[in-house]
Design goal:
about 425 residues; alpha/beta; 8-stranded mixed sheet; 6-stranded mixed sheet; 16 helices; about 15% strand; globular
Length: about 425
C-alpha cells in the first residue's frame, strides 16, 4: 500500500506540462522514451481511438466487450476525472497505487536520460505500455490525447484505428482549422491497416480518405455503433476468440459522462463533461429522453478557455433551457462574462454565477425537472465532489491530484 507521500511523488514525476509551441511535431521523443523505458516490441495488438468527443466512452466500452470474450484487455484513457490512476485499466480494474508509483519512477528515470523535455502525456503513455507489458495483456485499447499523428500512443502499431466524429478543436495545437485537425487525426492510419470511422463532414471524410489511399489502409465509414462494428472486424480477422453467441455484457458507463444522479430531495442531476457541439447534441438528445421535449431544465455550464463554448451553447438555444454560466476549476478556465459577451443566444434564458457552489445551490432550489452540469470534465469532477459521490479515500486522492496538476505548483513547471 502506497502512502500519500509516495503517490504525490509519483504524480510529480509524471507532471511535465508543455506550452503550445512545444507540442511534438514528431514521435522521436516518445520513441526515445519507450526505448529508454525498456519497452520491448512484442506480440501485442493495439486498437487506437481518436476523434473529438466520445473517445473515452468508446474505448472503455470496447475494452469491456473484448474482456467479455475471455481475452485480457488493457485500456488507456485521458484525461482523468478525479484520480490520475483512472487512465490505466486492465480488465476494467484500475492500476493499484504501488504499481502506479513503481511505473512512474521507472518512466521518470528513463526521461532523465533524454536531452529533450518529455511531456506528461508521453510519460503516462509510457507508464501504460510498461504496465500492459508487465501484465502480458494481448490486446489494448489506447485513446489519443491531442490529435493522433504525433500523439504519444501512435508510437504503437495498431491493428485497428477508430475515429469518432472529428470537430474543430485544439486548433491552437493542431494547426488552426478543421482541415489541419483532421490531418493530425488521420495520422493513426497504418499502411495496409484497418480503420473504421463514424460519419464525418465532407471535408473531414475527404482528408481521411486521402490519407487511407496514401498508406493503403482499408477505411470504412459507418453510422452504426462503432463498438459493434469494431468487434465484428476484430472477430472476422481472428483477433478475438471465436464465439458464435457472444454474451451481452453491460459495460458500466464512465463517471461524469451522461451520469444521472438522484439525490434524496430536489430535482435529478445529470453530469456530463462534453464540450464540443457534437457532444452537446448527444447531451440534448439524452435530456429530451429523460424530460420530454418541453421539460424545464437548468443547465450549468463552465468551459476551458481553449474550447468552442459558443458552438456548444447554441445547441441549447431553446426556451426550455435556463443556462447559468459558471467558472470551471483551474487556470485554464474561461471567464463566464467573456463567454456571455461572445455568445448571443436568442431563445434560452442565460445568466452568470461565477461561483459554481452558488450556481448549483440555486439550480437545485428551482422548479426544474432536471439540473444539468456540463461544458468540461473539470466542472463535472467538481460537481461529483460537491454532491458527495466520492469516498473519503477517493476524495483525498482527487485533492492530491488537483494539487499537483493545478495552481502555482503546476504553472511553475511550464517551460519558458
Amino acid at each position: 500500500m502506497s502512502s500519500p507521500a509516495s503517490l504525490q511523488r509519483a504524480l510529480e514525476q509524471l507532471c511535465q506540462p508543455v506550452r503550445r509551441h512545444n507540442y511534438p511535431l514528431s514521435l522521436a521523443s516518445m520513441r526515445a522514451l519507450a526505448a529508454s523505458s525498456g519497452l520491448a516490441r512484442r506480440d501485442v495488438q493495439a486498437i487506437v481511438v481518436t476523434g473529438s468527443s466520445g473517445k473515452s466512452s468508446l474505448s472503455h466500452c470496447l475494452a469491456g466487450l473484448v474482456r467479455a470474450t475471455g481475452l485480457d484487455c488493457g485500456c488507456y484513457l485521458s484525461p482523468h476525472l478525479h484520480s490520475f490512476r483512472e487512465r490505466f485499466l486492465l480488465n476494467g480494474v484500475r492500476i493499484d497505487p504501488a504499481t502506479f508509483c513503481e511505473g512512474a519512477a521507472l518512466v521518470a528515470r528513463a526521461a532523465e536520460k533524454l536531452p529533450e523535455t518529455v511531456s506528461t502525456f508521453e510519460r503516462s503513455t509510457a507508464l501504460a505500455l510498461w504496465w500492459f507489458q508487465q501484465r502480458s495483456a494481448p490486446l489494448v485499447v489506447l485513446e489519443t490525447g491531442i490529435g493522433g499523428r504525433f500523439d504519444a500512443v501512435n508510437v504503437v502499431d495498431n491493428c485497428l484505428a477508430l475515429f469518432t466524429c472529428i470537430e474543430e478543436e485544439h486548433t491552437e495545437w493542431l494547426g488552426g482549422d478543421l482541415a489541419s485537425v483532421a490531418w493530425h487525426k488521420a495520422g493513426i492510419l497504418r499502411r495496409g491497416g484497418h480503420a473504421i470511422s463514424a460519419p464525418q463532414t465532407p471535408e473531414v471524410r475527404a482528408i481521411l480518405q486521402a490519407e487511407a489511399k496514401r498508406v493503403g489502409a482499408r477505411l470504412r465509414f459507418t453510422d452504426q455503433d462503432l463498438t459493434h462494428v469494431a468487434m465484428v472486424n476484430l472477430a472476422e480477422r481472428g483477433l478475438l476468440p471465436h464465439n458464435p453467441d457472444p454474451p451481452k455484457v453491460p459495460v458500466p458507463a464512465l463517471p461524469g459522462r451522461l451520469e444521472l444522479v438522484s439525490p434524496p430531495c430536489g430535482p435529478r442531476l445529470l453530469i456530463d463533461g462534453g464540450h464540443t457541439a457534437e457532444a452537446g447534441w448527444v447531451l440534448r438528445a439524452f435530456i429530451e429522453r429523460e424530460t420530454g421535449p418541453r421539460g424545464r431544465v437548468r443547465l450549468i455550464a463552465g468551459f476551458l478557455a481553449d474550447k468552442k463554448a459558443c458552438a456548444w451553447l447554441k445547441v441549447f438555444d431553446d426556451p426550455r433551457f435556463h443556462i447559468t454560466l459558471t467558472r470551471a476549476p483551474g487556470h485554464r478556465s474561461a471567464v463566464p462574462r467573456k463567454v456571455h459577451a461572445a455568445c448571443r443566444l436568442d431563445k434560452a434564458r442565460i445568466d452568470l454565477q461565477p461561483d459554481f457552489g452558488n450556481a448549483l445551490r440555486l439550480a437545485r432550489q428551482s422548479d426544474a425537472q432536471l439540473v444539468v452540469v456540463s461544458g468540461s470534465l473539470r466542472l463535472a469532477a467538481q460537481a461529483r465532489e460537491s454532491l458527495g459521490l466520492l469516498s473519503d479515500e477517493e476524495l483525498a486522492e482527487a485533492r492530491l491530484t488537483a494539487q499537483v496538476f493545478g495552481g502555482d505548483a503546476y504553472l511553475s513547471r511550464l517551460p519558458d
